[in-house]
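Need tokens for this chain, all 433 residues.
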Amino acid sequence: MNNSFYKNRRLKALIFFVACALLTIIPHYFDIKNFSYLIFACCVVISFYGLLVISKNNNRSILSNTFNKKLSEIKLPVLDILVAARDEENVIERLVERLFNLDYPRNKLNIYIIDDGSSDKTPLILDRLSKEYEKLKIISRSPNAGGGKSGALNYALKFTHGEWLLVLDADAQLKKDTLLRLFSFVEEGSWSAVQLRKSVTNVNNNFLTSCQSMEMAMDAIFQYGRLSVAGVSELRGNGELIKKDILLKCGSFNEDTVTDDLDLSLRLLLSKSRIGILWDPPVMEEAVENFTALFAQRQRWAEGGLQRFFDYGDQLFTKKIDYLQKFDVTYFFILQYGLPIISMLDLILSIALVEAPIYWPVSLTAFTLSGIALFYGASCKSEGPVSQNRNLLIIILSLLYLSHWFLVIPWVAMKMSIFPKKILWKKTLHTGV
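Here are the structure tokens for all 433 residues:
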């Protein structure tokens, strides 16, 4: 993308931030008649749709055993597994060993590891593993090749020849029969792409990893519910299965965004391609273990999430997607990106003017829905590691943990609207412990 595109993103970010600021400031300085009724109406709409989305997971639990039927070998497609790895010496050997231990016909499985300009021992480890595993394919890129993870995946596409692609992170762990059950799910649902539920391997390391485990379960609850109600769902980067021809029609992976998965999710929605959400078996991965790493990761996610709406927002309302899908996308955009900015500015203004916050009922409603989804997600039967603590205190502490988004989103939106910035891809360090 050229510089004008970045300026366009910057302008849209500024317009978005100013709009949120005006929505906050105007009620504080102008006496708007019946404004409290509008707030109440917003809470009712938020509650109704949120509870509807969460309730749809009852169907998921009923149908969970439908997809355990394994396909015959002749029906299984050729699958290419792609892993973009940069400086992954701590986990890459474990990953390769486990990938070659998966139940899947060897003549239909290709494993590609993209050494994306690593400066640690990753190239040496991969070179040794390629001699041990004859079918392991190593693709190397220079450190300055550009495009981040998307660039690495796009570069690898020219070497693939399978019907389906499974994208994994270097710290991914799969159950032995995951691929067989995954394609049973694909055949039952006729999906264009599937996202495996993400589960945390180091769930019991500390409070932060436990909260991330519950957050991922909450996210899967909302994802499945949104898919059931409106047909809207999203990829999550690690553990995403995509039909290759659909990916190519959508323009492959976007090298001008910091979250290729969120960007691709919107393009798949616009092309009317369906993304399935599979609860079990999950893809297991490491959670970050300190607040510094958490905020770095969440800033990238927030920036990528906003970038996709700035890039494709106009198409969401001009393309022929369903009205319910438009409502769903708008609903979650406002709650995920608009509400944190409005709530934070509302709090600051309330302190400065020594008066009560105006939007607290909306924030309380959103947190209540999150708490319900947190408890529900953590209580669901799961094959992957789950947090063992699901009492009221833990739910409250987890909601307090989720409030970090009310700091991250305003900060990222402000940075995007003020400071010119080139695309920077920051990887998460994997320890392998």
